[in-house]
């Protein structure tokens, strides 16, 4: 399963009941995974810690809400 499929599974009813298989699939793709053009998911503590502490990764609210996946107007492909 590709990273976008794993992310879609995570948001499915089954994935919400048991998210751990989807987390495992995402982590198998690496510490930072692109799930859609320009949309990345950090999958491990070290990567998440780095992203949260580094000001270069700052995203404004407006930038986030304009992304089609984050805004809910598009879904990752399965």
From TrEMBL:
Gene3D superfamilies: 3.30.43.20. It comes from Micromonospora inyonensis. InterPro entries: Cyt_P450_sf. GO terms for molecular function: heme binding; iron ion binding; monooxygenase activity; oxidoreductase activity, acting on paired donors, with incorporation or reduction of molecular oxygen. This is Uncharacterized protein.
